[in-house]
Amino acid sequence: MDRDISPPPPKRRRLSPPPGNKTSPLPTAKPSTPVHLIEPTSCNIETPSVGSNSSSPLRIFAWNVNGIAPFLQKPITSYFLSPKATAKPIKPQASLRNFLSRHNWPHVLFLQEVKIARSDTKTQAAVQRAIISSSPSDTGPEYKAFFTLPNDPHNARGLGGEGKVYGVCSIIRSDFHDSHISRIRSVEWDQEGRVNVVETNDKLAIWNIYAVNGTSNPYRNPKTGEVAGTRHDRKLAFHRLLAEECITMEKQGWKNILAGDFNVAPARIDGHPNLRTWPEQHAINRADFNWRFFGVGHTERPDDPSLHGVDVFRRMKGLDRRYTYHPPGRDWGTSCDRVDLVIASKQMIEEKYVRESGILDTPEERGTSDHVPIWVEVVVGMDVTRPESK
């Protein structure tokens, strides 16, 4: 999430009432390390469908890491005690490979807010090295990283104007990528590095989303630099464009799974101790989000379509109060919001394609970020068995 306004700052305005495999240090840089930078494309839905009799679960994780830099250090693979016997355990440093191993080698790991400049191929290559086996004792599967990074000189400049801001990275297990992925793409209507789409042969679209954070700051025309509204306006446009493209794909027989940081808490239960409703535009943004993706709140109009999707965690966990944004500067659990979501096509829920979903809401899983990871298991008729040891 963008750090300036959402979730609420520590001192809130008046709001509505509350209702294990080991790895060794990363190898040195290799010029041949591949970098997969995904260029924006329009939605092309003419992809062949391949069926299978298997029903193994596809495991997808999503995490706003609030900057990739800490994950590119040499990993420490286990907890250990400091020399003093009474001292507390020292936590291991962040490591992408350790995360993948600890969570039993998921097929997909979506990262948001990686903060990599588009021109910084060195860091992109370092991410790729951080997710591959680097020791004979590491017998886990290999992975590939695919980036969608900012290409907007007026709205995604970052500190110093280098474009080191926003950005998403889709980390795909190599065996799954090679056997089931038909295409990985961005979208032509996003130049800020917020959308990456993984399309499978079975016509499942898995969306890595880092949604716009609404603020009163200006939004500029990406080509001319002229002010074209506020970041609130761009957030509403982002909702509309994303929902419309998902709807178009569903009409062509695709199923959608959207996972990531949507920069909005959908309902009162998703904010603690309160849900932010002031300034009023935040409530307007929330209402628009709930209509665009869940069909809740507005009267349907031909020019105002809704995806009519399903908030997977809320559907499966009922009224559980679990949160994904936990600012490090506050005591754990004192100010938090559920803004990282998995949204599934309604058909996937009705036909029981979605098996399970959860939130890894602990300080240890949050690590160096201010968000915790979320995950979902789905079945779409693909043979996505567990990885074999090398």
TrEMBL record:
Can you tell me which family this protein belongs to?
Answer: Belongs to the DNA repair enzymes AP/ExoA family.
Tell me what this protein is called. DNase I-like protein
Q: Which PANTHER family match?
A: AP ENDONUCLEASE, ENDONUCLEASE_EXONUCLEASE_PHOSPHATASE DOMAIN-CONTAINING PROTEIN
Q: What biological processes does GO assign it?
A: base-excision repair
The entry lists its GO molecular-function terms as:
DNA-(apurinic or apyrimidinic site) endonuclease activity; double-stranded DNA 3'-5' DNA exonuclease activity; metal ion binding; phosphoric diester hydrolase activity
Q: Where does Mg(2+) bind?
A: N64, E113, D261, N263, D370, H371
- Native organism is Aulographum hederae CBS 113979
Q: Where is this site: Important for catalytic activity?
A: D340
Ranges annotated as spanning the membrane: none
